[in-house]
Fold each of these.
Amino acid sequence: QIPNALWANLIQERLSNVDCIKQGWILEGFPENQEQAWMLQSFGIFPRHVVVLYASDTVLIERNSGKRLDPLTQEVYHTTFDWPTDPLVQERLVVPGDLSEQEVSKKLLEYHRNFPEVFQIYQKVLKSINADQPSVDV
């Protein structure tokens, strides 16, 4: 596991590049907990917007079970929502290794344990969006 201070340092270095300064930046899946959020702040990293896509745990577990990975391109597809049209791509798709319901449940438990504190830190810039609707509406 990478120490939080190292993550924050790496993120700060990347965000100081010209493209991020001119065009902005997006972090996905980070921070995962209060300590990481505070670490970002201590490195002077303050997002203008924090977007949270939410859905019930049962919906997330069900959606996760449909994920498929193209080992050649690392593209992620879904059996219901985003199936590739190319038969060659369809044939090479595999189920990602970390998709067991137990693994997903563990991640959701961790999320529910940590995110109220993260939400509190970013409450002034937080936008919550219901992800349990058609993607065009999200």
Amino acid sequence: MASKINFISEITPKRETWKIKVRIIRLWKTPGFEKPSEEYSIEMVLMDEKGSKISATVKKSHVDKFSPLLLENEYRIITNFGVGQNTGSYKTTEHPYKIIFFFSTAVQSCEDLRIPRYGFSFVSYDDIMSNKLDDTILI
């Protein structure tokens, strides 16, 4: 298990051991397509002390394990997770990668890290209207 605390900006798929301290600034659960009453995944946006953000996903097979451990606005230390490409038509962060929870991923509570509650990244109205922004990233 990684002992050094890493920052989100360092995360790439080139390593297998990471340890991050983050605040869960946004969390939502997606329903199953065939069974809308069942949770299909947990999706999150995590932010570290430097203000860097990354998306994270807990797939259906691990939702029951992690659901009680992952709470919006809480601080966590997360280790032993996978890193994959951040793809899709509407990405929640600019980070090129996202975190994928494994059954062996560890989640622990931690002290207040002085991470803002909201991770807003404001853009100018002119940039929005002139289509200068990457339209695959939510603003």
Amino acid sequence: MDATTDKDPLVQEQIYNALCYLGESEPEEILNACDEYLRQHDKLGYPHRVIILKAMETVVKNNISLLDKSTAKEVIREWQQAASDVLVAVGGCFINKVMEEVLTKFQPGVLPHYYVVQTFANLAVSNGE
């Protein structure tokens, strides 16, 4: 996974594809490995973190019926928190664009997802003056 920091988009795409491919045969192991890697590399640049998060998303979507319920719940929670953190960090420089995207998740008459509200709140806190 260290190769995600390679600046060549083809290398980044190959890493993403490899994680997704491995996730087809061993989804829980790949999800746990990605989760552990992200925890150990909390200073990983956001573009590189996104590659791993997207691979995790694909593995979860493609294998949700194969995952143990407790693993799925934990991985999804961790993935959502990490994605929220990425949006908040990107919002440090591109607050208007991130806010536009987050606001699209608020629909009239529909209770927003917990992480949408949390992301919105964290954006407000981190960009307050």
Amino acid sequence: ACSTFSQKSCEECLKNVSCLWCYTNNTCIDYPVRSILPSSSLCSLSNARWGVCWINFEALIIALAVVAGLILVCITVCCCYCCYCRRRSRSRLDEEEEQLARKREERRLQSLQRKHERKLKHDEIRKKYGLLQDSDNPYSRFENE
């Protein structure tokens, strides 16, 4: 029973987690479990201590609310930032992929152009030495002169 610690010290009262210390009349009372906050008829929030003696219940509630709010804001900012970065990285990857496809196509076209130029050069050499067959009749007999 918390009432046995009344008129003693706050530290002795708060060793039991289910107790609440009230500085107005130096009493140790059972924490009202049914309600989250103790009613003002029991003890005012500025004079109530729970858990530790050096911070009043009112400041404890405000501090916990601020910490919870900061955590929620941080989680929200992190989620938004991650979603934005993921979308941005996808678009960047798509741009890089398109750029690579363009470069691949340019290299393929350059390769075809060089192949065509080599064929023309070889055909000129064949024509110069009489090795080029007529394209009209590919089965004509090869004659040496």
